[in-house]
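Comment thread on ticket #2218

A.B. wrote:
> Attaching the input chain for the structure job we discussed in standup.
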Amino acid sequence: MKLKWASRLIDRFRYASESIFYTGWCFILFVAVSPQTLIAYDAENLEERPESCRATPYFIFSWPLTEECGFKPRGGTTSGPAVTLAETPYSAWLDLQSSDLNTFERDRQAILAMAGPYRTSFDFIETVGYVPDFQRDKPYQSWGTEYIYVVENRKDFISLQHIMVMFFEHEGKVVGPMVMKHWRQDWQYQKKQNLVYQGHQRWGLRAIPKNKVKGSWSQSVFQVDDSPRYESYGYWDHKPNFSTWVSAVTWRPLPRREHSVRKDYHVLEGTNRHTILPTGWVQEEENYKVVLDKSGKPAKENPYLAKELGVNRYGRIKNHDFSAGNAYWKQTQAFWADVRAEWETIIAKQKSFVLKTEVDGSALYEKLFRYAEQLQQVSYDPESGKAYIQDTLKLHVSGSH
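C.D. wrote:
> Ran it. Output below, let me know if you need it in another format.
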């Protein structure tokens, strides 16, 4: 359902987006903030604050000694209807607890347990500044509802596709659904090399140390257009009441939440933790914001700008209408499978490559999303689809060295 109010919002922000994320529809996710989430009032010192600042919410885990007014999270003002959280452990969690599993199979079950229906929240805040006269950025919050599909489930490989299905409250009415293809995560057992981000929109293959391969799982994260984002390896650790995986340190390009507002650094350097719980899972990030020189190396002077922490929560929900997402994925999954296959060919052939953010004023995700949108009305033709994918990616991906 394309609504006039949503379309106006989309038109306003569409071209502020970066090539690694989202069509106009998808941008709504990252400006949609539930203001009652994770905010608090400084009740103890409320009377001492200026009148204009007394009702200003801010992060609990923030900069409590600041006297600055308005230090509230970045984002928009839209919200969604209430959802019903699952109250009991779900079947995948119970499968993960089976005493019959060996370590390898328990790892697999932990990854598969991330599939399903979720309410998601995304929270990021800068905690430390490393340069003189550091100016802290406002925290960031957003939310969503999404279903995570199992795309592939082979013995040593699992692929999970996130699809957003959003409903919004507007002028006393619930509007939607709006369907958005979100990020993808692939998991490979004992992989020998990772495709890593090298800065300035370049990616390349890097060998994993031989003594680190045994027992490891590599997680590859992809943008909404199935272009690479980052990849790292780590190991699952299974506790009696949770399972967790922690990555090695990896670089990643600026995320959507930063790219349109920050120009003072070039790469996030950090670790990524996934923790599986009885009613969902949590992704935690610990990132350094790094300034690079023109060659893609950390700058000689003050390369580290700041540190941020991120917590992305995935709480399982029930009775949410994901039928529009199911229909979208049914109609487009063959097309996106061909997109993934073409990326695999590029990665296999190139030692490294650069992904151009725009060509002729249009981003890669825009072109692929427009093609996928057409498949809601017509059936996918693999021959013409593959030709379009190959021609489009040739425009946006340039040579190895």
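A.B. wrote:
> Thanks. Noting for the ticket: The chain has two domains: 4-27+80-320, 34-72.
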